[in-house]
Amino acid sequence: MSSIAVLNSENKKVKEIDFLPKVSLEKVNLSVVQQAVINRLANSRKGTASTKDRSEVNYSTVKLYRQKGTGRARAGSRKSPVRVGGGTIFGPKPRDYSYSIPKKARRKAVRSVISEKYRNGDILVVEDINLGEIKTKALRKMLDGFGVSSSALILMGERDEILRKSARNLPDVRVLNINNINTYDLLNHKKLIIKEKDLAHLEEMLG
Predict the structure, then answer these.
(1) What family, per the record (predicted)?
(2) What's the DSSP call for residue 27?
(3) pLDDT for 72-86, tens place per residue?
(4) Which of 206, 15, 12, 22 is nearest to 118 (CA)?
(5) Dihedral Cα 43, 46, 51, 53, nearest 10 deg
(6) Which pTM value belongs to this model?
(7) Most exposed: 94, 115, 119, 174, by fewest CB within 10 Å?
(8) 54 with 86: CB under 8 angstroms?
(9) Over the stretch 17-43, which tens digit does the pLDDT of each residue have?
């Protein structure tokens, strides 16, 4: 049985609970994880790169000099791609790079990463995260108390503006709603922190 300790705000073990049996025992599927990460990166691309071809470059189409008698290589319009400032051949144009992968594949990738974090001891289940006021220093102190010195992803079952705004000035900490959980953010942060009461929501999300 997969068990994990529940910690209070003072980093003391309160109790031990079963940790998402279906998720923690999931075998890591690197192929699906890779697909999910590439999909996430592709969907975040702006796709605004744009170049001008020879029909769009703003130059005259007048022949640069006569065809024969100069001793130079023949030349036509200054728009020619072989000339400096000329059009670009097969250059990028604005496009949409986004695509979708099956929901089952996305969920399997997330389960794979969470199961690996569980095996590595990189998941912290806490009783509550109650800061009281928007204060980055207080959140940093709490994380230090949990022994989190590296990057951390905090999963929330419901919106918490105090926590979200307190984490904005911590470049290595990200607060994410469970509904938006994704493979990329899980891999991009070493520690995963979640409240005990939100575990059921996470299990439901991951099928």
Answers:
(1) Belongs to the universal ribosomal protein uL4 family.
(2) P
(3) 999 999 999 999 999
(4) 22
(5) 50
(6) 0.83
(7) 94
(8) yes
(9) 888 888 878 889 999 999 999 999 999
